[in-house]
Amino acid sequence: MTFQIKSIEQYHSVYQKSVEDPEGFWAEIASDFIWKKPWDTVLDWDFNHYKVKWFGGGKLNITESCLDRHALHKPNQPAIIWEANDPHEDSVTLTYKVLYERVCRFSNVLKKNGIGKGDRVCIYMPMIPELAIALLACARVGAIHSVVFGGFSAQSIADRINDSECKMVITTDGAQRGAKSIPMKETVDDALTSCPSVKKVIVATRTRNPVSMIKGRDVWWEEEIKHVTMDCPAEEMDAEDPLFILYTSGSTGKPKGVVHTCGGYMVYSTYTFQNVFQYHPGDVYFCTADIGWITGHSYIVYGPLASGAITMMFEGVPTYPDAGRFWDIIDKHKVNTFYTAPTAIRSLMGFGDEYLEGKDLSSLKVLGSVGEPINEEAWNWYNEKIGKFNCPIADTWWQTETGGIMISPIANITKTKPSFATLPLPGVQPILVDDQGEEIVGNGVNGNLCIKFPWPGIIRTTWGDHKRCQDTYFSIYKGLYFTGDGCQRDEDGYYKITGRVDDVINVSGHRIGTAEVENAINMHTGVVESAVVGYPHDIKGQGIYAYVICEEPPSDIHISKQDILMTVARIIGPIAKPDQIQFVTGLPKTRSGKIMRRVLRKVACNELDTLGDVSTLLNPEIVAELIEGKLKLD
Ligand code: PRX
Asked: Which of 71, 192, 241, 573 has the fewest Cβ atoms within 10 Å of its own Cβ atom?
């Protein structure tokens, strides 16, 4: 852990250096990784006509930093400890040597099935070790992985496969999540009826429920690995070659394929992992995220493995077989670092403290939080009941697009403050601006959070549409990367993220675009128009509130709502199902025909005192109907 910061004084001086000499700063850190050829230039960038290049001319393969070097120096140290959904099933430990061998073997399977450098591979799998192996094998042969979270529908998988023209899908026969059995292959089969680019499907066995296997297209993982060797040299990649695509929702249109590249992402995810969590060799680190999201990519797979850490993978859910499951896992594996989401903390807090009884959590040293603002009550419970006032909480703010943690306490070094992400990490230059893009200076202020200088993990492009990347992130405020988040900087210069300022809802730490949900609802038969907003939800952080206009008033409101939920689940996935549906006869519109979302938000949030002036609406009379309908829902 050569570049770990060890004191707050050192943090300030390292931060200073990272601003004054960013190239020198990052070059020193990058030299701690395995490169096949050193870079020619550290950084080349322009935020106005967006381009960023880190470590230009450098050649590498990220798996050599994640696997080869550790397989050589500490072959028998655990790399991945896997805990099954069923607590009675044995956990599995893969040492660095075994992981290296399995990745090499599966890399040869990919090659044998026609996958090479630059090809896109869609991965739709539950949290089993084969998922991590699949990611790393893609990286080893130079293929670009696109992981789709297991909660997405066939339609969403198809959209993602088609957007990046994936040649292959890697999946499982089924999955087990809590008491539920999930048909993974069946969903992939449905998706593939409209994906002409996919030539091969590799199916790993997990549940061994019957699945259809199409001759010439579908093959079993276990069969394929029998016919290849485990010798697979790593493909030489340019630092700026794409490593992966990960789709994420925004204010408009379909989800965007965020592209991260090999060199900068490796350096950034690893540097931040080692610093934020102050990882010590031999520590057991448990991040509860799913690898279907960026947190799993950066802080279950790449950052920890490049650091030679012991990283856990958990297949199940926090409430199965009961709400003490996380605490059982911490006790069983003597976990030292625990990284989870506020929604999980709030939900487990709600089950009561009896699930903590008899659980030995004394191995814990550091706690982390990610994905959404953590409210003070949840922060305090986490601090007291889990950390026993003895573990710093790293409230880590970042995004799919940032590749790694941006604003966060450094464990045991930065003084924490409930619900504050505190200070930027070295190399991160945040700036608050008003709606006109003017910088808001000083402390004790609020504004839109932007970043004014590139860091190695920054998004490079949105797959197939660079203009969309430019327009979404770099055009709203000139010369700045715009995060989409509102932010407070308090008197101490500490940052507190207050939530999205665009039309994105954060449901249980998952980003959902209101436009996407509206499009799905509008596909439901009889629906004329809909509008979706977020509202505060005790467990999920935000819930989805949908106002729906139908051609005819629904005869059975309950059934109609259930039908709409089914349509949304089919089109996007169960995670996008609205929590509340209100049937209305109209939506508040401005004279130019735009929906006045502010009014919809205020009604959904029960903030009726601050509705503001509605007299300029084309149809001001609708507001009374909205309020009356809302009160009936409550
Ligand atoms: O609104 C912020 C919120 O999650 C968004 C990013 O979502 P996603 O790309 O899915 O990545 C989630 C995991 C990194 C941000 O724009 N967010 C993330 N972390 C925090 C947060 N909001 C407040 N505090 C955080 N610690």
From this structure: 241
**Domain-embedded: residue 2:** no
Evaluate whether residue 553 is within a structural domain: yes
pLDDT digits (tens, 9 = 90+) for 196-250: 999 999 999 999 989 999 999 999 999 999 999 999 999 999 999 999 999 999 8
Which atom of ligand 1 is least distant from the CA of 289? 13
Tell whether 555 is covered by a domain.
yes
User: Within a domain: residue 346?
Assistant: no
pTM exceeds 0.70, yes or no: yes
User: What token pair was written down for 133?
Assistant: 């192996």
Whose Cα sits closest to atom 4 in ligand 1? Answer: 371
Q: Which amino acid residue places its CA nearest to atom 6 of ligand 1?
A: 399
Question: How many angstroms separate the alpha carbon of residue 584 from the centre of ligand 1?
Answer: 32
Kindly report, residue by residue over 511-552, the tens digit of the pLDDT. Answer: 999 999 999 999 999 999 999 999 999 999 999 999 999 999
Minimum CA distance residue for ligand 1 atom 11 = 399
User: Helix and strand tally (H, E) in the chain?
Assistant: 20, 30
**Tally of domains in the chain:** 1
Reply yes or no on whether the pLDDT at 89 is more than 70. yes
CATH (domain of 550): 3.30.300.30
Cα–Cα distances (Å) from 159 to 122, 164, 298, 456, in that order, read 11, 9, 24, 29
Residue with the smallest CA separation from ligand 1 atom 12 is 371
Nearest Cα to Cα of residue 65 among 33, 18, 29: 33
Range of the domain at 586: 508-633
Strand partners, 497: 487
